[in-house]
Amino acid sequence: MNKIVQALVYYFSLPFLYFFSILPWPVLHVFTNFFFVILYYILGYRRKIVRENITASFPEKSAKELRDIEYRFYRYFVELIFEVIKLFTMSQAQKLASCKMDAETEQLFKDLYAKGRSAILVMGHYGCWEYCPAGLPLQTDYQTYVIYHPLSNPYFDRLLSRLRTSTSCKLYTMTGTLKGMLANRNELNVTAFLSDQSPNPAAAIWTEFLHQDTAVFNGSEKIAQKLQMAVIYGTMERVKMGKYIYHTTLICEDATQTQAGEITESHLRMLENDIRNAPEYWLWTHRRWKHKREKI
Predict the structure, then answer these.
(1) pTM of the entire structure?
(2) Residue extents of the structural domains in the chain
(3) Which of 6, 145, 225, 287 is most buried per CB count within 10 Å?
């Protein structure tokens, strides 16, 4: 797509994004019903991928149970899109209210900060992960970083970058993460990793995840060990559309005290448990299992 087309798509879309963003939540909820019908029944957006992923992940469930998960996921997926759009016009106070830490999480961050310990926060594409850079920096003394993959459309990429840094949050590109974290190693910070992306199999380790042979990143573990960081698993409990409670579990206070693979296995099992408890909140449209392990 050339720059002229990218610009046209961006400037055509922008008024609609801000129109929906200024609408109150009850009105947005009405629109979600309309767009759900279009996305699920008319367009069938990635329905084959979603169905294959869910079926392979829950072999113990009946066909009716699998279709129920699929239906609930698409209902949530449409609401998730509007939750992100709503961020464009949210005030700081509204962002804070939309993603509140629980009391244990607040205390965990305070304790680690008092000990002078920086941390890696591992998450999945579970709940509205875009609320992490929006809400977390407003609730901790840490400098917060998130890792992102630049979009192919530079106009939307700049828009999302401004959105993610509208609080005190800062960004690392995926390719610049290690360099950036090394440069900032003397700063007290928390860096958020999305741990459930599909990596290059040549640089991956393999494990079982949701009943499937799965390639996973272990970069967050390696960096945490190299920089002697704490590692925290983070997850989002959805209260209602536009409102989440952020929960965390401390995996380790000092990654150098763990065995190889221990951190990666720990946060994957926690994410897997969250998905099993409420599967509709995970991003099933993602081609998570597109790579297969080479047979030796």
Answers:
(1) 0.93
(2) 3-88, 92-281
(3) 145
- Which residues does residue 190 pair with via DSSP β-bridges, in sequence order? 119, 144
pLDDT tens digits along 16-73: 999 999 999 999 999 999 999 999 999 999 999 999 999 999 999 999 999 999 999 9
Q: How far apart are CA 191 and CA 118, in angstroms?
A: 9
Give pLDDT < 70 ranges for the chain: 1, 296
